Amino acid sequence: MQIAIPPRVTDRAFARLAEIAEDTGESHALRVAVDGGGCSGFQYDIRFDTPAEDDIVLEKDGHKVLVDPVSLPFLENAVIDFSEELIGARFVIDNPNASSSCGCGISFSM
Questions:
Q1: Percent of the chain, pLDDT > 90?
Q2: Is-contact 42 36, C-beta < 8 A?
Q3: Residues 81, 58: contact at Cβ < 8 Å?
Q4: Rounded to whole angstroms, what are the CA distances from 78 to 23, 100, 102?
């Protein structure tokens, strides 16, 4: 059985998590998951959550990004980043496994 390589989290994404923690006074873990659905077959579920026992935890300076074992193969070698553009600021996924993605950046196919 081949083990999936976890995604990489950029310094910019960890810096944004640090800013959120400073603004709220609480440190929240960011969950990045893949669900079925969306206009392209799969969609990202990016939200703050509590770590589960079987999560892969990517951590820097006490800030955590969580990936569940079911989502891990879909996110292999992906990059989790934070983007600030004119249309808004958000966490984004650069996923080399996606064969196409929706214009919203939340939905993709493999």
A1: 57
A2: yes
A3: no
A4: 28, 14, 17
Q: Kindly state whether residue 102 falls inside one of the protein's structural domains.
A: yes
Say if 2 falls within a structural domain: no
d(CA 38, CA 17) in angstroms, rounded, equals 26
100 inside domain: yes
The per-residue pLDDT for range 32-75, each reduced to its tens digit, is: 999 876 565 778 899 999 999 999 999 999 999 999 999 999 99
Determine the Cα–Cα distance for residues 48 and 66; give it in Å rounded to an integer. 9
pTM of the model: 0.84
Q: What is the CATH number of the domain that holds 45?
A: 2.60.300.12
Tally of domains within the chain: 1
Pick the closest to residue 61 from 9, 104, 18 (CA basis).
18
Residues 6 or more apart whose Cβ sits within 8 Å of residue 31: 45, 46, 47, 48, 49, 55, 65, 66, 67, 68
